[in-house]
Design goal:
- The structure is a single chain.
- The protein is mainly alpha-helical and 537 residues long.
- It contains 26 helices and no strands.
- The longest helix is centred in the middle third of the chain and has 30 residues.
- The relative contact order is 0.06.
């Protein structure tokens, strides 16, 4: 399926719509085609727009090197233009600031964001001014310059509120809450974080809800309200996993680091070290050097603490704010400590945390064993949930897809890594071993997942609509509906990703393959639904 010929501007708009839907391969193809057309049309502004858009796409996928290269090229074109589009130049500087923020290049980030702010102020673009100040505040947080962070973030919040922007007001309030926590102003921090939580719930942004709950948990930890800290951290992790398949791994790392702090205060050093190990692994994979160094130092400290009895807490420590004031394993917000009801709730929270730990362990093990699948399960989950929305499915079905999508390949843990990563074709013995992984995965998860429907999706995700699949050779409607959805999403992501034995196909090539095999390998209705998800009205 090939898009009809179009001009670069309409392709840039089309890519933006697809990007907002998180259909990244399709967005990338539209913007790459726009770039080629802009070059042919000899239109430097449109070329800069396409480069900027592609830079944002790679930033979203955390490919910072590619993002920096593309955005730098866009900026060079604009700087060479006799009459550059100032609005676009401001956006490019802003995006470059974001890249440098993620790359921990704070000085370069400040320079880019200040350039963006100067352009936005010259134009009188209040919302862009507020966004630039919000980002400058975030950079100041990284530098632990909390006075500057508070100044920039408060200025941004004021503009967002005046312009009736509840979503961005929520982000600014969340950041102010984090700043006030760091400054020890816990009352104000609590007010800002609860304001942010309410605004984000209304906006329905799951990632921002998770970020806010993480900061609330951190505040509660500093106040010694451990039961509440566990509860907020647990809710943050669950919310993060509830997003449409695009779990923010950096935030998952931060939450795990936070749990390491909580359980170290309770004296549960083994559990704390386990959370720290996962946080360190995520920070390392994401190239977050500063956070990795902090977590590594904490790990060494924790190992030392585990090897000897924890020292008694001094009277001075009990009355000092921050972490030193945390003295007990239970919620100290009331004179009588935690009630029986809150104790039961805490036990329930921690039991579910054990389940989540198992979940993360399985995903981590699979990515370590088969590196090219890194991110595959999350992308497949995203596509299945987008299809579920297109098909009008309910929340229960979406929850089933969220679980089975992320764990559908876990049975590959039973297969030798040399087979999984073999660059050439598999021999018969190897092929039979690989074909066992759906059943192996369902059996592995039987004692962990209570959902029969999710287990069925995992078990049957390699069945074919014409009955030629495995493990049971089911066909047509014998294959569960949710499985038929996942098989399309799984195949599309496999085709649009690099594999040891072939490079990735383009979005159009992959869609053509799905259409060609609709009615044989795939359910025609599910392929049609997937194509509709990419339709631009």
């Amino acid at each position: 399926m090939k898009a009809a010929p179009s001009d670069s501007k309409s392709l840039i708009r089309k890519g933006g719509i697809l990007f907002d839907r998180r259909l990244y391969p399709a967005a990338r193809e539209a913007w790459q085609e726009a770039l080629v057309l802009a070059e042919g049309e000899e239109s430097p502004p449109d070329k800069a727009r396409a480069l900027n858009a592609l830079g944002v796409l790679f930033l979203a996928q955390r490919d910072l090197e590619q993002a920096l290269d593309l955005l730098s090229k866009a900026l060079a074109i604009l700087l060479e233009s006799p009459a550059p589009d100032q609005r676009l130049m401001g956006q490019v500087y802003f995006n470059l600031g974001s890249v440098h923020w993620y790359a921990e290049s704070n000085r370069a980030g400040l320079d880019a964001l200040r350039s963006a702010l100067a352009i936005f102020e010259a134009q009188g673009n209040r919302l862009s001014i507020a966004r630039a100040r919000l980002s400058l505040g975030a950079l100041a947080i990284l530098d632990e310059d909390f006075e500057e962070a508070a100044k920039q973030t408060a200025a941004a919040l004021e503009i967002f509120q005046e312009e009736d922007q509840p979503y961005f007001s929520g982000i600014a309030a969340k950041n102010l809450g984090a700043i006030r926590t760091a400054q020890g102003d816990y009352l104000t921090a609590d007010q800002h974080l609860r304001q942010a939580w309410q605004l984000m719930k209304e906006a329905g942004d799951l990632n921002q809800i998770a970020y806010t709950l993480t900061e609330l948990s951190r505040l509660q930890l500093r106040q010694g309200r451990l039961a509440e800290a566990v509860r907020s951290g647990h809710r943050a992790l669950v919310t993060l996993l509830s997003d449409v398949g695009t779990m923010d791994k950096a935030e998952a790392a931060r939450i795990h680091y936070l749990f390491a702090e909580i359980f170290s205060v309770r004296g549960d050093y083994d559990k704390s070290l386990g959370y720290l190990q996962r946080a360190m692994a995520y920070y390392q994979s994401l190239g977050m050097r500063r956070e990795l160094e902090t977590a590594t130092n904490s790990f060494a400290t924790m190992q030392a603490a585990r090897s000897k009895a924890a020292p008694a807490v001094s009277r001075d420590q009990e009355t000092t704010g921050g972490r030193k004031g945390i003295i007990g394993p239970l919620d100290s917000s009331s004179p009588g400590g935690a009630s029986a009801k809150s104790r039961r709730a805490l036990v329930k929270e921690e039991l579910h945390l054990k389940y989540l730990d198992t979940f993360f362990s399985l995903v981590d093990l699979l990515e370590e064993k088969e590196p090219y699948t890194r991110g595959h399960s999350e992308r497949v989950t995203a596509y299945t949930l987008i299809m579920a929305n297109e098909l009008g499915l309910g929340e229960k079905d979406k929850e089933t897809l969220a679980v089975s999508g992320r764990l559908h390949d876990v049975g590959k843990l039973t297969i030798d890594a040399t087979i999984l990563n073999k660059p050439g074709p598999l021999d018969e013995r190897e092929r039979l071993l690989v074909q066992r992984h759906p059943v192996a995965g369902a059996e592995m998860l039987r004692s962990t997942i209570s959902s029969y429907e999710a287990l069925a999706v995992i078990r049957h995700h390699h069945e074919r609509f014409d009955g030629g699949g495995y493990p049971e050779g089911r066909q047509g409607q014998e294959i569960p509906l949710l499985t038929r959805i996942l098989t399309v999403a799984d195949a599309y992501d496999a085709m649009t990703s690099d594999r040891p034995y072939r490079p990735a196909l383009s979005h159009s090539q992959a869609l053509a393959e799905l259409e060609d095999k609709a009615g044989t390998q795939f359910d025609l209705n599910m392929v049609d639904a997937f194509i509709r998800c990419h339709s631009i009205g």
